[in-house]
Specification:
Shape: globular
Number of domains: 2
Number of helices: 15
Distance between the termini: 6 Å
Largest sheet: none
Radius of gyration: 25 Å
CATH topology of the largest domain: MetI-like fold
């Protein structure tokens, strides 16, 4: 097991380098350091001296990939790519283009993102799996048919409709919770109720149909017929046998999502004014702040790779037949 984990982590290094290289190349296809300087300085007529001074202060005065003026290894190390990308493997994210410490911003904004993402994840998983089991319990009945129709209707509605409609109905009409904003501590609970509920409702349709399909596939197998032949009730068959044997495909989707919870929700945080990592990324994209975008892409890649590794490890806990060499 340990050898497998170390091998997967070793494979992750070239993947992360490739992701950084691709992100770097795509960003500078659209923007040059001079364009970034003009945008950050925020004036229409910027002198060449001010641009050069900004580039020197931010470390963009070197060549992007290859420094022909340097000697030996310095041709690769004395570049913007090396300074801005490879040092992130030591979790040194540096400063944003407006001068703020990116690492401190990430640590500060991680809390609000988790405050929304964790309840949404746990509550959504509980609700959708329960609804799927309920529909399978009454399969081939009118309740199951209308349940599937309801899921399709929920899937067909844009997530923006849930956000805007929820803000209008719950906050503006009923005045139950604030329409947007965030505060720390217990008082922040009232700011989180509506985003969490809307996120769960928006995911019910697709996830319930997905889990229902998994359970229907399992319920037609031989071990289920054997369990019924032993006199077990339908609820016992569903919860003790079907649910347990359907855990591998469920874990495939669930465990991968867990690390990405740290990244926050782009839409929800932006519309509700939550100062999390999702809104932080959106603001960086709008401001074309390459330092922040690069850091968030790198963190997302690391978390996704860790999620895939956790998925493989969790298989061995759910299914004893799975063994990792």
């Amino acid at each position: 097991m340990l050898a497998y984990i170390f091998r997967r982590l070793f494979y992750a290094i070239p993947i992360l380098i490739g992701v950084n290289l691709l992100t770097f190349a795509l960003f500078f296809v659209v923007n040059t350091p001079d364009d970034m300087a003009r945008m950050q300085l925020g004036v229409k007529r910027v002198t060449p001296e001010a641009i050069e001074r900004w580039k020197v202060e931010r470390g963009y005065d070197k060549p992007l990939f290859f420094n022909a003026a340097a000697m030996g290894v310095g041709q690769l190390t004395q570049t913007v790519f090396f300074d801005k990308s490879l040092r992130m493997f030591a979790l040194e994210f540096g400063r944003s283009d407006d001068g703020r410490d990116i690492g401190n911003e990430i640590r500060t904004r991680m809390g609000p993102s988790l405050a929304i993402a964790v309840p949404t994840f746990l509550l959504g998983l509980y609700v959708t799996v329960s609804l799927a089991l309920f529909l399978v319990l009454f399969r081939a009945t009118a309740l199951d048919v209308w349940g599937v129709v309801g899921c399709v209707m929920l899937m067909s509605i844009s997530g923006l409709f849930y956000i805007i409609g929820g803000q209008w109905l719950v906050s503006k009409v009923w005045h139950l919770v604030p329409i947007s904003g965030y505060t720390s501590g217990l008082d922040g609970f009232r700011f989180l109720i509506l985003p969490v509920v809307i996120s769960v409702v928006a995911s019910i349709g697709a996830n319930t149909r997905w889990y229902r399909t998994l359970f229907l596939e399992e319920i037609s197998k031989d071990y289920v017929r054997t369990a019924r032949a032993k006199g077990l009730s339908e609820t016992t068959v569903l919860f003790r046998h079907v649910l347990r044997n359907a855990m591998i495909p469920i874990l495939t989707g669930v465990v991968v999502v867990i690390p990405l919870l740290f990244m926050g929700s782009l839409l929800v945080e932006s519309f509700f004014g939550i100062p999390g990592l999702g809104s932080y990324t959106i603001d960086a994209i709008n401001a074309q702040d390459f330092a922040i975008v690069r850091a968030m892409v790198f963190i997302g890649s690391v978390l996704y790779i860790l999620g895939l590794l956790l998925t493989d490890i969790s298989y061995t806990w759910v299914d004893p037949r799975v063994r990792l060499g």
